[in-house]
Amino acid sequence: MRRLTSASATAALTCLLVGAAATGCTDGGTTEKRSADQMLDDANGAMRALKSVTVDRVGNGTTSRLTTDLKNSCAFKTTSAKGAVLEQIRIDDTDYVRPNRAYVEAWNRRRADATHQTFPTDAARQKRWIKTPSSESRPSDGLTECTYPFASFGKAAKGEPTKVNSTPAVPLVVTDKADKGGIFTFYVATEGKPYILKVAYKGPTFGTSTTTYSAFDEPLSVRPPADADVLDLSDIS
């Protein structure tokens, strides 16, 4: 039997073993042969096809984590530099929200003057979850949606290959005329599926932020709190 020793045979065998999605196996090309815009389009497509993902964000004195099925089930937590914490669990049409006392006090100060609406302080004092229809939740309340947009705009340019948490990646630097001075850097995996691993932003208007993505398509377990830990708003006069 003739031994396969040529570089082309080795490459073909690698593609068969690891799948056509591996770097260098798609249409016989490599990341070097695809434009930055093409790579970013592929990455956004791979992210939109996910069934679940975890999104961590750090920026402007706030950290947050969203674990979501990208449809109607998710868990969210945000923490400010001043110690205000808001937790949210969404399951279909119901939100369970748990703010700490610092969050309630800050929220009530902001909202009372404008709308005379305040958070029930019982929840923060007793560390209970507030149950409310998700249709009544608003982003202005600090709450989130389980869906997540994976899109980009502007012109992309490739940076030097790097690694994100030991995963090989290519940074794609994107600028947009509408955001003068703002720069997005998308770090796209070059092994396996072209997932977006991290997005770094820097600009004069919105400051700096870093968003990382992980737990791609991992099993998602989002459950409601125990009934004894829930304060139903319909019971509050």
Descriptive report:
Helices cover 19% and strands 35% of the residues. The protein starts with 6 loop residues before the first helix and ends in a 5-residue tail after the last strand. It is globular. It contains four helices and 13 strands. Strands 1, 2, 3, 4, 5, 6, 7, 8, 9, 10, 11, 12 and 13 form a 13-stranded mixed sheet that branches. The N terminus is likely disordered. It is of the alpha+beta class and 237 residues long.
Termini separation comes to: 84 Å
The computed structural class is: alpha+beta
Shape: globular
Largest sheet: 13 strands, mixed
How many individual helices? Answer: 4
Helical content stands at 10-25%
Q: What oligomeric assembly is this protein in? A: single chain
Strand percentage, roughly? Answer: 25-35%
- Total strands: the figure is 13
What is the alpha-carbon Rg in Å?
22 Å
Uncertain segments: 1-29
The overall average pLDDT, rounded, is 82
The run of helices and strands is: HHEEEEEHHEEEEEEEE
Which features characterize this protein?
237 residues, alpha+beta, 13-stranded mixed β-sheet, 4 helices, 13 strands, disordered N terminus
Short structural description:
This protein is an alpha+beta fold.
Topology, pairings included?
Layout: H1 7-18, H2 36-48, E1 53-59, E2 62-68, E3 73-80, E4 85-91, E5 94-99, H3 101-115, H4 121-126, E6 129-133, E7 155-158, E8 162-164, E9 167-175, E10 183-189, E11 196-203, E12 207-214, E13 230-232
Parallel strand pairs: 6-13
Antiparallel strand pairs: 1-2, 1-12, 2-3, 3-4, 4-5, 5-6, 7-9, 8-9, 9-10, 10-11, 11-12
